[in-house]
Amino acid sequence: MPVPSDRSLHRLTAPSVHLPFRLSSQVERAFVEHGLEKDPTKTNTSFAHSVVTAPHPRHVRPVLAPDAAAALEKALEETKHAIRRWRIFGLKAPLADYDRCGEGMVTETQFLRVLAMFNLVPATPQGRTALLDYYRGKGAKEHMIDYRAFLQEVMAEEPAS
User: Rounded to an integer, what distance in angstroms lies between the CA atom of residue 12 and that of residue 136?
Assistant: First the structure.
């Protein structure tokens, strides 16, 4: 077997000068849409377009079992009715006090504590569990409750009929 020369070893071990260029062109091909400056109505075909237009995971609510969905619906109706009847408008302030980072999430205990302050905790354990599961965070925030989505749901004005 022939012994490789220094020159051939250098070629085998030296990093390719074209590697950064190839990598940048692949990244550009995946995330950049060319030709939009000439035709703004062009539909995006880049990979990033599908990533950017996907719904935010926080806005995707879980699909509950039929009995849990019924318990959730009943709990939300009872909460909405109590808010209208007792004219509870200060529900956001105590929840926001617990939200130190301003991300719209509080722990399960904090959420239930605020609901208990206003006597809004669902009466049945199934309703309470369904309410917590429906507004529970995703991934690393699984122990947190999305109180902004809850407030948006229960504080929404009923359409005049």
Answer: 54
- The listed CATH number (1.10.238, 3.30.40, 1.20.1550, 3.40.50) that belongs to domain 60-154: 1.10.238
pTM metric for this prediction: 0.64
Q: Where are the domains of the chain?
A: 6-54, 60-154
DSSP letter string, 14-81:
SPPTTHHHHHHHHHHHHH--TTTTT-TTPPP-SHHHHHHTSPPGGG-PPPPPHHHHHHHHHHHHHHHH
How many whole angstroms separate alpha carbon 59 and alpha carbon 134?
11
Give the pLDDT confidence of 33-73 residue by residue, as tens digits: 666 667 767 666 655 555 555 556 667 788 899 999 999 99
